[in-house]
Amino acid sequence: LQESESENRLDGETASDSESKSEFGGSSPVPTSDDTPEVLNRALSNLSSRWKNWWVRGILTLAMITFFFIIIYLGPMVLMTIVMCVQIKCFHEIITIGYNVYHSYDLPWFRTLSWYFLLCVNYFFYGETVTDYFFTLVQREEPLRILSKYHRFISFALYLTGFCMFVLSLVKKHYRLQFYMFGWTHVTLLIVVTQSHLIIHNLFEGMIWFIVPISCVICNDIMAYMFGFFFGRTPLIKLSPKKTWEGFIGGFFSTVLFGLLLSYVMSGYRCFTCPVEFNNDTNSFTVDCEPSELFQLQEYNIPVVLHSVLGWKTVRMYPFQIHSIALSTFASLIGPFGGFFASGFKRAFKIKDFANTIPGHGGIMDRFDCQYLMATFVNVYIASFIRGPNPSKLIQQFLTLRPDQQLHIFNTLKAHLVDRGVLGSLEDA
């Protein structure tokens, strides 16, 4: 009973919160009900609520992990489709919360405009991705070439249309509320669409950059729950009364170890380490290449202090395993703050979960609150420490230039290589 009360108690509500509730009509979203399948309810009826929740979460977690393995096996295209579906569902869950507050005023176009802006933002982000990764296909088809050439102008025109529709929908005496919801939609787009776009960018760098970070977040979530369930005594943060220091620390060490082991296994397979590229001849994605130095075993010296403890002087590792330590550390120490942020959001609107899509786990957004923060970190990490200039993209841009521009670049590059001694003299060349 104490656990149930602490979970449902809303701490830190101020006078401004009360004012907000009165301004929004005093209506709040209806808390989610128990949607545990009847089969599980009957099978676990003799258990206490604490252990019943443990088994429900465990069974559904195993089911989700199995589904995760299946979509990885099905390949990059299915993964991208799933990311898009998750993005749409997360957007729907957040917008629905706003709509539950907003609909009592019967104001026009909120839900329509929200989905319209989602379409515009997706068109902007993924239109650029298509141009980058499907360049040959785009140049081959006249309609796609036109859409690619004027992509940003079309995106701006679409957004401007939605902006004008919003202005025309303003209703006297409810201006402030409508601007609240306009901001709500745009913050949701920033959180959901931008991060899912970065996840797909990470996937194109190689499936290992997609799978390892996501798996580290999943591992940390599971192990923090397990350590907290069995050993948790010290509360970690008021926003989530059930989170404990024991779970937080246990999840950290477990995730770092898991990241090292998973990276070692995956680094030996080209299907995981090679960048995902579109083959224009077969019109399909390919993941075949010569592994980079990141995925070739190298020998590292162990610090002298650890010689007596480990009994080794050197160790053979993939360089990517060192990067996995950074990824798993972020997933364990900073990633949970995405969950804390989501907890604060839910408490502000007096709801336990974003939705009841997954019994025992809440909505899709409840499962991906940490993943979105992780996706941004991975993208920044790759851009800062891993990725260099991409020769294939430079060649694609070079081929779109006029012949005189191409000839100028060719002569400039030739002279540069001669100066560096890579080529012979200009006369010999």
Automatic annotation (TrEMBL):
Give a GO cellular-component term: endoplasmic reticulum membrane
GO MF terms on file?
Answer: phosphatidate cytidylyltransferase activity
Origin: domain of life = Eukaryota
Query: Which pathway or pathways does this protein act in?
Result: Lipid metabolism; Phospholipid metabolism; CDP-diacylglycerol biosynthesis; CDP-diacylglycerol from sn-glycerol 3-phosphate: step 3/3
Spans of biased composition, class Basic and acidic residues?
A: 1-22
The protein's predominant localisation is membrane
Membrane spanning residue stretches:
109-126, 153-171, 178-200, 206-232, 244-266, 320-342
Signal sequence bounds: none
Q: Where is this region: Disordered?
A: 1-37
* Annotated compartments: Membrane
Q: Which UniProt keywords apply?
A: Lipid biosynthesis, Lipid metabolism, Membrane, Nucleotidyltransferase, Phospholipid biosynthesis, Phospholipid metabolism, Transferase, Transmembrane, Transmembrane helix
Membrane topology value: Multi-pass membrane protein
Q: Which InterPro entries match?
A: PC_trans (IPR000374), PC_Trfase_euk (IPR016720)
GO biological process, any = CDP-diacylglycerol biosynthetic process
Q: Which Pfam family, just one, is annotated for this protein?
A: CTP_transf_1
The EC category is transferase
**EC number(s) on file:** 2.7.7.41
Known catalytic reactions? 1-octadecanoyl-2-(9Z-octadecenoyl)-sn-glycero-3-phosphate + CTP + H(+) = 1-octadecanoyl-2-(9Z-octadecenoyl)-sn-glycero-3-cytidine-5'-diphosphate + diphosphate; 1,2-di-(5Z,8Z,11Z,14Z)-eicosatetraenoyl-sn-glycero-3-phosphate + CTP + H(+) = 1,2-di-(5Z,8Z,11Z,14Z-eicosatetraenoyl)-sn-glycero-3-cytidine-5'-diphosphate + diphosphate; 1-octadecanoyl-2-(9Z,12Z-octadecadienoyl)-sn-glycero-3-phosphate + CTP + H(+) = 1-octadecanoyl-2-(9Z,12Z-octadecadienoyl)-sn-glycero-3-cytidine-5'-diphosphate + diphosphate; 1-octadecanoyl-2-(4Z,7Z,10Z,13Z,16Z,19Z-docosahexaenoyl)-sn-glycero-3-phosphate + CTP + H(+) = 1-octadecanoyl-2-(4Z,7Z,10Z,13Z,16Z,19Z-docosahexaenoyl)-sn-glycero-3-cytidine-5'-diphosphate + diphosphate
The entry assigns this protein to a family as follows:
Belongs to the CDS family.
Output this protein's name: Phosphatidate cytidylyltransferase
Cite the source lineage.
Eukaryota, Metazoa, Chordata, Craniata, Vertebrata
Q: What is the primary gene name for this protein? A: Cds2
